[in-house]
Amino acid sequence: MRDQTWMYSPPRWRLIRWLTNAGPDVPTEIHIALIRSLFGTLPLLAGAVVNTLLVSACVAYRIPRPEFLIWCAVDVLICALRVGLLIAARRAAAQRRETPTDLYILLGLAWAASLGYGLFVSFLHQDWVVTGLIGMSSAAVVGGIAFRNFGAPRLVAVMIITAFAPGVLAVPFSGEPIMLIVLIQAPFYLVSMSIAGFRLNRMLVTTMRAERENAFRAQHDSLTGLLNRAGLMAAMGGQPGENKALFFLDLDGFKAVNDVHGHAAGDMLLQAVADRLRNRLGPGDLLARLGGDEFVVLTDEDSRSALLTFAERMREQVSVPYALGSDRTVRIGVSIGLALASEHGSDLANLLSAADAALYEAKAKGKDRCYVASALAA
Q1: Which residues form the GGDEF domain (predicted)?
Q2: The whole model's pTM is what?
Q3: Which CATH superfamily is domain 229-372 in?
């Protein structure tokens, strides 16, 4: 969740979308993070690839029959494509280009099917050394699938069944009655590993939701949902840019509303003011509540006349009476301090300091007005 550098594209194909769906209520941000988790790391994939390649190569060497030679060749091809596609996807993700997510997941399914085929033909051939080797490899792969891909529990279940079930289906034709016990053991194993994938997914999504909510609370005001000081700093990276301007707003008469009507009414008033200010913002503007009845608006506009017009519109909007319940109507004003990045520096702390000083002047000159901070001496 924290690292947004690697951006893997969500799947487009309907089947792959269904396989990677983590639930109806999973936010888009978490879904994208879960998709990223399916790609894993190159060393992790390399370990799985080496495992199946060694097993298929050893089996083909021991039993050089067409069915095993074909399995080995197909396994080499699929593994090479998976590694190559992972490398290509990582490069594309780093450059924020579209990644071949559908094809990568499809190759994962093909890899599981290849392992299932190897297990199937080994049972039919009745070489129990080979069957034991492939069976242990399959069990290890199934565990890896469950714990590596639980970002997509449906995909986990399908890959587990694809990798293990063909061998189970071949058991009745193996010629060994004792092997029929696998028909009892395997379903429990497949179901339990699939359930583990779903449970791990729920735990992961719950944790990611908590992280997301904690990050939101750390950067947003709990009452109004606006950015707080930390959120404003994070949104701008501390450097607003030369063409920015900052309005520092302080409500006039808010304390009287709190004293007369109570804190609940004061909270309703702050929420109403936040809503009105939101409606005045452009697409590139930011609105924050720094605490109490102090608000900040950061805008791209740098024309002084346009900024003063904008300030007057905010002042008029905030000054319209507020209905706080069925029988309470209150009126407040707003004092505004304005600082410009072109005159006071592009650092957000400097802008806040200059706008705060201008706000103090606006209060001193009678309140309910906008005052522009003095330009810094050259």
Answers
A1: 242-375
A2: 0.66
A3: Reverse transcriptase/Diguanylate cyclase domain (3.30.70.270)
